[in-house]
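look at this one:
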Amino acid sequence: MEVLTGNHFERTKRYARALFFLALLATVIGFMTVSAIFIYAKVLGPPPLVVSKSSLFVADDGHIFGATNPQGEIRYWIPLDDISDHVQHATISIEDRNFYDHNGFDLKRIAGAALADIKAMSMVQGASTITQQYARNLYLGHDKTWKRKLAEAFYAVRLEMSYSKEEILEGYLNTIYYGHGAYGIQAASQYYFGKNAERLTLAEAAMLSGIPKGPSHYSPTDNFEKAKKRQELILRSMVENGYITKEQADLAAKEELTLVGQHPHKQNGFAPYFQDIVRSELVNKLKISEETIALGGLTVYTTIDSNLQQIAEEVINYNMSDQSAMQVGFVAMDPATGYVKALVGGRDYVKSSYNRAYQALRQPGSTIKPLLYYAAIERGFTPSTTMKSEVTTFKYDEGRAEYTPHNFNNHYANEEITLAQALALSDNVFAVKTHLFLGEEVLVDTAKKFGISSKMDLVPSLALGTSGVRVVEMVNAYSMFANGGKKIEPTFIKKVVNHKGEVLYEKEQEDTQVLDHDLAFVMSHLLRGMFDPKLNDYARVTGSSIINEMTRPYAGKSGSTDTDSWMIGFSPGLTAGVWTGYDDNQEITLTAEKLYAKNIWIDFMEKALEKEPVKTFVPTKGVVGVYVDPDNGKLATESCPVSRLTYFKAGTEPTTYCIEHIEHRIEENPEPKTEPKEQPDGKDRPWYKKLFDWI
């Protein structure tokens, strides 16, 4: 065992004295630093109680159509005495239980959070007091950095030195965001429960106090289950802090809440459904916090065109009867970029904020057929491919099931028709035959290629649009025909700039060819067929009702099921799609209501483009245009009563001439029995016999 010598003892004493003086020095320096901070804070005086800069939504034409400023927000400032005690106690319990005991920040909570951050090597846990949160909302951004945390603490000290706890709590409760545009407890109380904040019950107060942690997650109108669990957590914390008894908490947890979900005085702003999508994408896609959106002074440059949006809303209101309960989803898009230029998600945002253009899954009916026929042409079909249109029963699922599709009004050609006619007349039998011939998985894979992410069922009826899709997806798909097969996606935000002018996000344009360039043009020309009476056969082309209103070339396709009515189409520079139907899937029976989608679409396209020069669909270099007999798809002759210019990918155009009408003319006008003697060069030989010889 080592014996402690005198030298060792003296050395230990020196170390102890040194440590003591170092600790004393550190204490003095720390005291002086803290004193200096408090003196500096006192010299600066009370910080102004102002809200951070507003965020602006800017249209494609530079028009500011939305803002998160007081004029655009739902915000009411009320004194603390007009705020229910339950709200105050619930907020303090869940956000800052030591609010009345600290001087701006909770050292114990900070130490715990710092330890967690050090272990994770990043800012993973917060320990902000109510004062710090109020300071952050007033003066700072919401980035998780040590610099911001230190600034937040300093502002908290200044607030605590200059204002009472009651003033700080009042300011916090009047500025915090509760979701759905409600800033402050009064706006939140009126939106969620239709009453003033002073009348909130314990159950209602606990529910509202849980929302600021994540308004998109804990809103009771959006996610009641999550909101309810957080309410129960807050009630338990109020019991632990002595504000209520366990019996009161249990009664409050059982109380049935009546949610209103509507601002009592809110005006229906410009393009409200579009604004909802922009806010959602800022949070979910760009990962920008809701607080930053609300108070961070952002400038959000969007894709919406103010003029086109106004036209869309006007034509919808004009064409749909006030007496009809049908709803609408509408999207207009620039096919070159995917920029959404106009969007309407319903007939009245105040009555229903459900976005039928962006959220609703509805059966697309025959509007899915162009995707099917693109896949068919890609695999060897041509516009002249023929199949018989007749009542047909198909067996599937290895013969265990049967399916019999029917045409509109049960009309059939009962003979061969071309693919071009089948699309223009919307023949269902032709579509199902094509679908099953290709294989059911082909249409599913093709839909994904066109950017459709909605789930599709592998069944024969998929060719007739029985799997639900979104309007915005279908408009995006048709835009790929219009742009020659380039990959695009529905785009709502072009750029986001913060209050310092720094670009936080900017959309980058892709240049990826997804479809065959030539086949995309062939399909675009085929889609003009619904407006071409030359393709009339056993029925009229499906665009007959609006042909007389057209002043320029369009391509498109209508679609209908018992419960859904669609029209999607495009010019070379603009695509638009319309869905109309009932929210409850009620059957559409009135003829006038069945025409809403087409009428809205043509009115929009004509008004949107009336000041634009007429543009035609320019053939690509790899296609060939020939005149064919629309009934059989063969090369037309002078004897054919109707001939139609039709485009094919080079090398797939028909080579056989139509002779049906030649023979018919011979029978009607027989040649003389004695024909003139032919000259050696054959010039006097009848032209049709020359044709027979050539064939």
Notes: The longest strand covers residues 564-571.
